[in-house]
User: Fold these one by one.
Assistant:
Number 1:
Amino acid sequence: MHIPVLKKEVIQYLDPKPNENFIDATIGNGGHSLAILEKTAPKGKVLGIDWSQEMIDSVNKNPNLIPVCANFADLSEIVRKNRISNIRGILFDLGMSSWHLASSGRGFSLQKKEPLDMRYSLANQLTAEKIVNYFSKFEIEKILREYGEEEFSKEIAEKIVEKRKSKPIENTLQLVEAVKEAVPRAYLRRRIHPATRTFQALRIAVNGELDNIEKVLPQALSLLETGGRLVVISFHSLEDRIVKNFFKNRASEGSEGLKILTKKPIIPTNQEIKINPKSRSAKLRVAVKI
Ligand SMILES: C[S@@+](CC[C@H](N)C(=O)[O-])C[C@H]1O[C@@H](n2cnc3c(N)ncnc32)[C@H](O)[C@@H]1O
């Protein structure tokens, strides 16, 4: 089960009250949503979105929860179709859930032998296997550089293309092996696994993660009531930069603007990181619509 990250802080900033409506754009196992619903009873609704059907199926039934399997990049349309209004807050807890890593069997983890898939939604046509075996060397290098900030993107892309000539790269361990062969020896002794950035980059590319965030933030702001809160938890600098810049730009504009409530991002306490090490890279930013 996924442990919700920064739950106390999310609730403190969303500040849900009886009968208010909220959107949880990344419901996962529903940890944050259930905490919101406890405060918005008896009549407040939560529209809970996830791109993985398995996550939607995992969430406990609650008469005030509207579960929807969709890409949050289409937020305005999802909201229109589900006829929810007077939205007091929208939460994004970005990335993948523990289920994706541990149980999906879709190659999100570099520690287990699984097919190279990495899709949140099985309706998505693109997989990591397609990128690795069919994209050009230059396209792969660009993905690793831009989405993984990988220092050895060129070397890794070259190794992938060399290896796939004799045999397709179909599983996670084959990819890990290619990365290990491509990078200098010193890289293998570092604290983070040498393939971590490659896996992050492929996951972002498969799911269009940065595009999704770019697309949804303006929609989220315009869907909120005045005084409503936009709460975003990100897990790496590329996501965080998009959120930070969006907040900054809209804070300086007049129309449909916002006020930033977190000058510096909120990060988990040492105690939270001890209980849930996966929370260690989380950054929470909050803005209020004005
Ligand atoms: C970190 S988990 C959320 C965990 C959740 N807050 C909880 O407490 O259980 C992120 C979730 O966002 C979903 N997700 C990622 N990108 C998405 C997108 N573009 N649209 C909808 N859901 C998305 C993933 O499938 C994953 O379940």
Number 2:
Amino acid sequence: MFPLPKTGIPGATFPAVPSSTAASMMLGVLHQLRSTQLLPPAELQALQFRQLSELTSHACRTVPFYANLLRQSGIKLTQPISREIWHKVPILNRQAVQEAGAALHARELPQGHGSISTATTSGSSGRPVTIRKTALAQFFWQCFVIREHEWQGRDFSALWMTILRDDLRTDPAHSNPLRRFPDWGEPLAAIYPTGPGLLLDYRVDVAEMFRIIIKEKPAYLTTFPSLLRELLRESHASGVLPQGLLEVRSTGEALSTEIRSLCGELWGTKVSEIYSAAEIGIIAVPCPEQNALHVQSEGVFLEILRDDGTSCASGEEGRVVLTPLHNFVMPLIRYELGDRATLGAPCSCGRTLPVLRTIPGRARDMITTPTGERRFPFYSHGEMMKLDAIIQHQVAQTAINQIEIRLVVRRPLTVAEETQLLSIARAGLGTAHELRVVYCKEILRQESGKFAEFTNELNPSL
Ligand SMILES: [Zn+2]
């Protein structure tokens, strides 16, 4: 059914008159996206290069890192940029972003890009980077979130449940894990009327979590794949099936085909996922018609490259290199995310946006307590990041009663820092495990190419 936006004028229900400036801006962009998704690829790419030229000329004028790059390499990023020049721009990896620090920050911003926020992410390699973003970059992120809702044709009047960490729940041992909201929240509820929303804190026992799902009957459920696996296991063991569940939205980790098909078999429910990264925004979302992921080319310029830097052909796996088009406060130009992916053949749905075959793998597991319970490790990732001697970390369960905190450090931690680290870990992981700090030269990726901040090496299986 056509989703009718909220109206700002009583009585003018159809067509709706948007209720705020923000809603009008968003609907204005969404209107364009409905056309740009159908453009011939060359035309879309030409528009991307217009926006890339805006970004690169701004970067050369106001970002010291790019001003130096320009001086040293003689690459003229200040002119309207061509594909030929583009391919000469060096790839920026995570380590370079870490090292560049404030040299990647713009000294000034064009008008209207809005306020600046920061986020720290360990991403796929476990090396923390702090990213600055403008309100404009967040605005485009939100537009793609809404576009995905529209593509999927979801019933906005239904109940949406999210199972993630509820940061406002400061006393997980004693407080109610479920919070109720009148709608699905931003950004969708800013422009469309929606049904109610629920936030279930993942820091509860899986059996309890499943009981809440059965009782509340959400139509849509967002959660981690590893948690979905636990819920499916609980459902299978108890013989109880959720009623009215239309779709599970996987987030935060790679979704294995095994879990996807188990969810289909046991619950008869499809599982969808979005490919995104904190540094970039939304990268690709599922096609509503075909088994494909469409790159959100109006927000990000995506390249899949061979090791020698040349572009991969369709069907050939390579390094994912991304340029977010609208974040002028910390331009990331040809940023290597650390993922590997493969471009697919054009989609038969009619959308000409490039196709990724699959979402690159990510993995995180659940912790096993000595009494056999499974739950998420909820140590404070952000707190751990504040210890600036740490370059990379990983928390690994290596035995039923033992957890290793693996660290790659710039310099040895002081006694006080190590005590702080252990208390952060203890606060989140509980007291059931022996904690051990292990210093490493490098923490290797998993076979999938992704890095798990937490890894359960007890080999859990469904
Ligand atoms: Zn498609």
